[in-house]
Amino acid sequence: xxxxxxxxxxxxxxxxxxxxxxxxxxxxxxxxxxxxxxxxxxxxxxxxxxxxxxxxxxxxxxxxxxxxxxxxxxxxxxxxxxxxxxxxxxxxxxxxxxxxxxxxxxxxxxxxxxxxxxxxxxxxxxxxxxxxxxxxxxxxxxxxxxxxxxxxxxxxxxxxxxxxxxxxxxxxxxxxxxxxxxxxxxxxxxxxxxxxxxxxxxxxxxxxxxxxxxxxxxxxxxxxxxxxxxxxxxxxxxxxxxxxxxxxxxxxxxxxxxxxxxxxxxxxxxxxxxxxxxxxxxxxxxxxxxxxxxxxxxxxxxxxxxxxxxxxxxxxxxxxxxxxxxxxxxxxxxxxxxxxxxxxxxxxxxxxxxxxxx
Length: 358
Ligand SMILES: NC(=O)c1ccc[n+]([C@@H]2O[C@H](COP(=O)([O-])OP(=O)(O)OC[C@H]3O[C@@H](n4cnc5c(N)ncnc54)[C@H](OP(=O)(O)O)[C@@H]3O)[C@@H](O)[C@H]2O)c1
Description:
By secondary structure, this protein is an alpha/beta fold. It has helices spanning 21-27, 29-32, 36-47, 63-77, 98-111, 132-141, 143-146, 167-182, 184-189, 220-241, 257-260, 265-280, 290-293, 295-299, 337-354; strands spanning 3-9, 53-60, 86-92, 117-120, 129-130, 153-154, 193-197, 245-250, 313-319, 325-331.
């Protein structure tokens, strides 16, 4: 019997790195499990016909974390009633290493004739530190901004990867783009849904078209998400001609240790309190819980008539002030789309040559 193959880039969580993680595990297990890739896997399975056989391919930079992700998913999916077989595969992938990206692409091409779902969830660099004075000031003077688009998060500037590219550009955008370009065959055969995880904060102000690799940017993470939006606009039509349906989604704002790693437990729970307050007072983007955050990524895989649904929108996970989830779409400003596409395609050609003897 045939099976559906879903590849999820970066489906694990970071809690083990925290000194105070045990507190989370014991008292707040619902929050511990909130990391997006795991929840995307869970929701994808929930949406499948229960008799469908599914293969989940999870990636990480280490085998250990791949295995951990698989164990967590296995444990969680026990809650879903399904008769279809669920199997797993793990794939080592470091998006900041182009040889690793090519190797992962070759492995996917060798192992799978068809890939049905592909989620670009892996990302780096949301927060490398916190300017506490600015944080306190912003919480007091503009509390909604402080929990929606905070300006006190420090992001490292000018970091270059070992492949001599902007580090965040390569990790969050180019590595995944290159990988997708190398597996078009199985994606096309599987009539795949490709989902890029963007962000609420991917506004044009965070991307200078003179610095597409985000080397001089003070907000490279947000700039990388803007690049994702533009790259999606530039490529979805071409992919559709191959039978591949690409979407860009954003998860709202949810509890993630990618930025809470920098916090003490007091500031962590204060942030959580402010998130809940923001939602109560009308901020629909405060999804808070990873399951609700994964709503938009799962939603775009369920379109019955894909030709009818718009692909030029960004689908966002949202909640009403009582926490009930829904999906809210947003227009994407296309300014700079063609320049970004030309630049990234140029990089792809450059790396095709560099990697041809690999
Ligand atoms: N938290 C929020 O409120 C929020 C808001 C908007 C958008 N998002 C987006 O939602 C997605 C998931 O966020 P999250 O907070 O759940 O992520 P997370 O817990 O920080 O996990 C990041 C994942 O990316 C992988 N990764 C990091 N660097 C990598 C690299 N160089 N090569 C390959 N994989 C790499 C990690 O895998 P390994 O470490 O195992 O290799 C990990 O699985 C991200 O795209 C994020 O930008 C989050």
